[in-house]
Amino acid sequence: MTRRALITGITGQDGAYLAELLLAKGYEVHGLKRRASQFNTQRIDHLYVDPHTAGARFHLHYGDLTDATNLIRVVQEVQPDEIYNLAAQSHVKVSFDTPEYTANADGLGTLRLLEAIRILKLEHRTRFYQASTSELYGKASPPQNEATPFLPQSPYAAAKLYAYWITRNYRDGYGLFAANGILFNHESPRRGETFVTRKITRAVAAIELGLQDRLYMGNLDSLRDWGHARDYVEGMWRILQHDRPDDWVLATGEAHSVREFVERAFAAVGREIVWKGRGVEEKGIDRRTGKLLVEIDPRYFRPLEVDHLLGDPSKAQRELGWKHTTSFEELVREMVLADLEQIQREHLAHGQLVNHAAE
Ligand SMILES: Nc1nc2c(ncn2[C@@H]2O[C@H](COP(=O)(O)OP(=O)(O)O[C@H]3O[C@H](CO)[C@@H](O)[C@H](O)[C@@H]3O)[C@@H](O)[C@H]2O)c(=O)[nH]1
After folding, report:
1. Which of 146, 186, 199, 278 is 20 to 30 Å from 215 at the Cα level?
2. CA 91 to chain centre
3. ipTM beyond 0.90?
C-alpha cells in the first residue's frame, strides 16, 4: 500500500526538502498551500505533476491553518498516514509586529489539525509531526536538550509553546501518535531571504557581483546552532517512524555567532573582514581594499533577543540513528555559491537586483 503524507507549509524550505524525500521513498505526497496574489511555489515547481497524469503522487490543496473547516475537509479527502505540520508564521521579528496572527496560525493552527484528526476518527491511522523549535528555549542556558525548561522570548516562541504542549496533551490524553521535533536553526539555499543566513549570503553574492554596496545587520553577537535543512527533514521522517511518539531535539551540537557567519560568507569569495568600533557603531571593513562592507542598523534588533542556542542531539543520535551530515563551513559555502549563481540569473532576467531582505 502506498503511504500518504500531508505536509502543511509545503511551499517553504523544509516542505520542499521533505516532499522530495517522501516522494523518493515512494509516498503519495499532499501539500497544503495558501492562496497568494503572487506565485509562491518556486521551491516545489520541479515536483509538480499534472493531476491528469496516471499515477501522479504529488498533489497540492489550497488551505490555511487559520481555517478549521478547510483543514477538516483536506484531512478527510487525503486520509493521511502521516501529517507534518510545518506551516507557520515563522519569522521571529515579524511575530512582534503580528502577534495575534502568529498565535492564530502557529498556536491554534496546530490545535485545529489535531482536532481534525479526532473529529475524523483518524487517531489510530494518522501520525502527527509538530514543527517545534529551539526558540522555545529562549533564555535557557546552553546546551539545551529535551529536559531543558522552556523560556520563550517572542510572540512566535509563545505561540509555538502552546503548539508543543497541545501536541503532547493530545498524545497523552487521546493516544495519538503525536511527536514534537525541537529543531535548531536549519538553513539552505532555499532559506527565506529575510532570515539572517540567507540575507548574508545574498548580500555577499550581490556585493561580489557589484550590485550592492554593503550589508546592514542587527545583533552580530547571537549564537546559533546552524545545520542544513536537508539533514533535518530526514530527522522529521525518522521521528514518525519510531515505535513510540516522543519529543526530539535535532541539532548539530555546535554554535557560531552571526558575526562568524558574516566572516565565513565573505571568506567564501576570498574577502577578509576586519571589525572596527563597538555596538551600533561597529563596522566590517574589507582588509584588502579598505572598503566598508558591513554596518549595523538598529532596525534589525528585536525587542527581546535569544542569545545562545546550542542543541544537544544525543537522544536523536542514540534512538533514531540521526546525525547531521553537513558542517557549518560546508553550509555557508553552499549558500554563497548558490546565491552567486541565482543573483546572476536574476540580474540577467530583470536587469536589477530584487531585494526582500527588510527584516
Ligand atoms: N533576520 C535577521 N536576523 C538578524 C539580523 N541581524 C542579526 N540577526 C540575528 O540573527 C539571529 C538569527 O535570526 P533568524 O535567522 O531570523 O532566525 P531565528 O530568529 O533564530 O529563528 C529561526 O530559527 C528558529 C529555530 O531556532 C525557527 O523556529 C524560526 O522559525 C526561524 O527559522 C537572531 O539572533 C537575530 O537577532 C538581520 O538583519 N536579520
Report:
1. 186
2. 9
3. yes
